[in-house]
Amino acid sequence: MQRRSVLRPALPPLFLARSDCLALLGEAASAFALGETEAASGVRAALVRGADSAVSLLGKPGGFLDNPQVKIPLPGALNRAASMLRAIGQGKQVDDLVNSMNRAAESAVPEAKPLLLNAVHAMSVEMP
Question: What's the pTM?
């Protein structure tokens, strides 16, 4: 009798034996191992990209004012007084104050970008 060889499709890593998975993970870890310099460079690059993204989102008209997550409210006592001021017909002045604070923040963000980037480039990164 002749034996037939049956070709089996390769199984995805999910179905590999535990020892095979550990060996593959070890090889992948050593292949992708980063030195401290490369890791620090990656952290800095991510922070620079985050700063660019934040400036493009917040440093434009409506960046603060139209985003409830970052909109700057009136501080403490002024916020408590705002309802009283609205009750006596001063609501427009309250809204103007909130608008001007948020517009000031929107115009300040692009000005702060060089300072933020300098801090990112000057920072030290320590690996645990």
Answer: 0.64
